Amino acid sequence: MSAETMHPEAQKRATETLVKVVNSTGFPLQLGIKRKVEETYNTHHWSVLSMEHPWKNPETDGAGYADLILLSNCKSQVMIIECKRMLDVEWIFLTPTANRGGQPRHWTVANAWISHGKEDLLRFGWERMQTEPVGYRSEFCGIPKMDNKATTMLERIGSELIDATEAIADQERLLCKGQNLLRAYHPVIITSAPLKVCKFSTADVNEEGEITHCEFEEVPFVRFHKCLGGRLGDLSKSTNLPEVLKEHERTIYVVNASKIVQFLENWEYTFPDGIVVLPWFAR
User: Does the reported pTM lie above 0.85?
Assistant: First the structure.
């Protein structure tokens, strides 16, 4: 029996089933984010540079497709975006403090990939830089029914996004050889899941490993900041383990899909010391 000859109720159920299949792919979220960014360009001045962009990291042999690449109007800021559709769950990020009653810090420092120079690049690697909007920073994430697997999932997604960011930076290095290049590349996860932070003091963790007092706050985005690998151009000169950890820390912005326009609109940045932004770098 074809769909055209089905009873209307049966046809409706069949259509709903097919729609669920399509929505489960996550592609509608990706297309919806693309359209929202394009329609609100005059608000934030970011454009969609590419979608489903192929990449291959020569250091890790990782390969895939970046959902979206966004470019700022000033041409120096790039966001490599992964879209994740999540159903009926919240992403809860832990933001501990050392002292009871203390509030977790709002951060402006982030680790971004910097490409800068002409011919032989002067800068080509992960560096700390100042970015806004300010927000909470977290190393750990909890998702209902996933227990401690949530952080592992986010680490896996994040590590692949780091690989993609490095690979795309390397693509532009080759494409722009001999040209002036100044780029800061920022990995971003956009999710349909509501984002919350769990604010607590480590002094309020009991012997069973449970938090006895905490507060929750819904936020538009979080800086997921921790050691997430990344090997391209890594010429480590570390002399001790803490330095190794610090050199491999990365920052991934996790943004709620309904807040992406606000996030882009409020974006501000300051390049690391030693980078002078001149008009001829824009291309």
Answer: yes
